[in-house]
Specification:
By secondary structure, the chain is of the alpha/beta class. 45% of the residues lie in helices and 23% in strands. Helix 7 links the parallel strand 6 and strand 7. It is elongated, with a radius of gyration of 19 Å. This is Nucleotide-binding universal stress protein, UspA family.
Length: 265
């Protein structure tokens, strides 16, 4: 049985997995996360010399020795990455899914975009994509891209809870025109948030830019954001604006990462 407040981390059990697992557990200690590693494997791997179950047990033993006070579980499961993860989140209480780019690229996908798109369609669990696990070592500021939608208020609460109320969260909106109207909307949304979420960790800003993507870049730089949150509401808005796959734009962008995707109810 998986414990509550558990973070699910798919791994491919290659040489670099131990290093990535160590960094994930270092981060987990800061926010009281339990970690559940899962290794989705194919029929071809069963036929190879490597035993998935044995490899997972070796990883768990190693991590439990280093992090004796942490709750660490894991299993190897035959199947496609997205299907395995969706099945686990459907039956267990998973707080967060972490996809470390370098450690899932061998799991039947050439890029992280494939499994992320599939997971966002099939499950409601927040998904954190990380190109480099070291980028989360000194997490201090989180930015949430807002469209002033009521559902995004719950997303703010989710993010604050997820990081154990320890990280400053900046809710921001990028606009290209109608400054007065946008600022009035932000003021009203801030009041709506205050009426529904009890936290002192939030800051609210509007930012003028020529386009949304350059605006996000500027906010990340100006406010030293270590992690960007994109809700499904904001994702739909941007995709409508750009008429393109925003997942690929943001995941592959050298600045706008790590990225946390939250599906609004």
């Amino acid at each position: 049985m998986i414990s509550s407040n558990t973070v699910l981390v798919p791994v491919d059990l290659t040489e670099q997995t131990k290093e990535i697992a160590t960094e994930v557990l270092n981060i987990a200690q800061n926010f009281s996360w339990a970690i559940y590693f899962v290794h989705p494997f194919s029929q071809e791997e069963i036929s190879s010399e490597r035993d998935p179950d044995q490899s997972m047990e070796e990883l768990l033993t190693s991590m439990r020795t280093i992090f004796s006070n942490s709750m660490i579980q894991g299993e190897a499961v035959q199947g496609d990455l997205s299907d395995v993860v969706v099945n686990i989140t459907a039956t267990e209480e998973i707080t967060l899914i972490i996809l470390v780019h370098d450690d899932i690229k061998n799991l039947q996908y050439s890029t992280v975009v494939g499994p992320l798109s599939s997971l966002m369609e099939k499950c409601s669990t927040p998904i954190l994509t990380i190109p480099d696990i070291n980028k989360l070592k000194n997490l201090r500021h989180i930015g949430l891209m807002s469209s002033f939608h009521p559902s995004e208020i719950e997303s703010l609460q989710v993010v604050d809870d997820l990081f154990n109320h320890l990280i400053a969260i900046i809710a921001f909106h990028i606009y290209t025109k109608n400054a007065e109207q946008v600022n009035a909307q932000m003021q009203q949304w801030e009041l709506d948030v205050a009426g529904n979420v009890s936290s002192n960790n939030f800051k609210f800003i509007t930012y003028h830019a020529d386009d949304v993507l350059s605006g996000v870049e500027s906010v990340i730089t100006a406010y030293h954001l270590d992690l960007l949150v994109i809700t499904s509401i904001a994702k739909s808005f941007i995709e409508t604006l750009f008429s393109k796959n925003i997942l690929k734009e943001f995941i592959n962008h050298p600045l706008i990462t790590p990225t946390l995707f939250i599906k609004c109810s």
